């Protein structure tokens, strides 16, 4: 291929890329959303007491019940709920996906051991409400860490990167809003290239596919 056709291909792909990014941005700004961060945080906060008095399992059970009442038909059924390891940014946690679409997700997240690493930069706003344990966040440019305790909500904005650290036994409820497929590359990167734990990759993709099918079924049903 000569230089000119190559240049033309490059320009075409760049233009398509820019159109795609602006198109998705426009869509994210215009569309209406099922969940909002305040409602999810409020549901999580309601069960902080249960988490400390009884157990995190009982508290998470109540969170799921409340979500099923408020967002009927949008939370995966019990048989599809699965705790899946997440290896990303050098840390290791575990998540239980409750809802996911192309623009939103709700999940339970945490770790049974101390773990630390890079938060990742996402095309999504992510909020975490802590039920038990301690979440440490070190923001870019800062020389101090911020400490989050049960009942606190951590906000992670689009494009932001922080250092994150969780004490053993930190469990939380997480809500993400943005272009969700873009967060998957980070969530799976360490499983692909570091741990090569392809079973975890499979579980993650499988549960995301199930959640997408639930949403597709819901919208076909309401038509
Ligand atoms: C993320 O949050 C910021 C600040 O609240 C907001 O301006 C922006 O639209 C949000 N982005 C998405 C994708 O929801």
Automatic annotation (TrEMBL):
Keyword Transmembrane: yes
Keyword Membrane annotated: yes
Residue intervals passing through the bilayer: 7-28
Subcellular location: Endoplasmic reticulum membrane; Nucleus inner membrane; Nucleus outer membrane
Keywords: Endoplasmic reticulum, Membrane, Receptor, Transmembrane, Transmembrane helix
Pfam families the UniProt entry points to: ERG2_Sigma1R
Protein family membership: Belongs to the ERG2 family.
PANTHER family: SIGMA 1-TYPE OPIOID RECEPTOR-RELATED, SIGMA NON-OPIOID INTRACELLULAR RECEPTOR 1
Name of this chain's protein: Sigma non-opioid intracellular receptor 1
The species this protein was found in: Aplysia californica (California sea hare)
